[in-house]
Amino acid sequence: MSDKNPEYIYGVNAVTTLLDINAGNRKIHEVIISENKRKKKRIEKIARLAGEKNIKVVTAGEKDFRDITGGDKSAQNVIAWVSDYNTGDIYHYLKNNMRADSKLVMLDGVTDIGNFSSILRNCFAFGCDGIILSRKRSAALNRRVSRLSAGALEGLKIFRVTNLARAIESLKEAGFWIYGTSSERAENVKDMKDTEFTSPLVLVMGSEDRGISRIVSGDCDVLFSIRMSGRMESLNVSVASGIILYYIQEKYERVKN
């Protein structure tokens, strides 16, 4: 477990999810709570969770807490001092943790922190197992992402791989269907509503300016697009991820019922 870059995680949601799940296997050195907010219910829950896990809880005076956070209001009167996020091994996941209904998201070249954070929130909300990123051309996994994602980073396993195409090959061998998004209107691009979305599945999404790379696109089992009736040619990648993941969830629910 890496402890090279200790940092502070800010905010009630982020710290709560960290204590509940800690998908990044961070070492939690201590939780620091602002003295004048100690009795708030959500803060009390955090203190209780930390105590149950034998994690040190420190109560700081208002001035000391402000000095630590630099007055950043996003701290919401609670922070956790932690090690850096540890990414998972996709091959270990395929061997030990995948299920028949597993959902993964693969991001090809999405580097914008705001978009990445929103995608994390969508994945956490709709029950994805994790997100696959390339070691190059991908967003960092830091305090800002944890805060902007409302703690979703702490609840999702992130897999970094050297080569997305090679990872897709292994995913297919394990039984995953690979569904890639496209803004093109071509014969080989289905409408989302005509797409089966057979599980286990991987949803592949690219950056807004370039989309999915040619090599990755060619490795997808199905390419599809979201039909739009307005004048916009494409949607923001984080917005599109929310629409697609919601649609997949609703489709699965209809099949179950």
What does this entry look like structurally?
The protein has 257 residues and is of the alpha/beta class. The protein has 2 domains: 7-82, 2-Layer Sandwich (60s Ribosomal Protein L30, Chain: A), CATH 3.30.1330; 90-256, SPOUT methyltransferase, trefoil knot domain (Alpha/beta knot, 3-Layer(aba) Sandwich). 35% of the residues lie in helices and 21% in strands. It contains 9 helices and 11 strands. The protein has helices spanning 12-20, 41-52, 62-69, 90-96, 113-125, 143-148, 164-173, 214-219, 237-256; strands at residues 7-10, 28-34, 56-60, 78-82, 103-108, 130-134, 157-161, 177-181, 189-191, 201-206, 222-225. The protein has a 7-stranded parallel sheet with strand order 7-6-5-10-8-11-9, with helices on both faces. Helix 5 runs parallel beside helix 9.
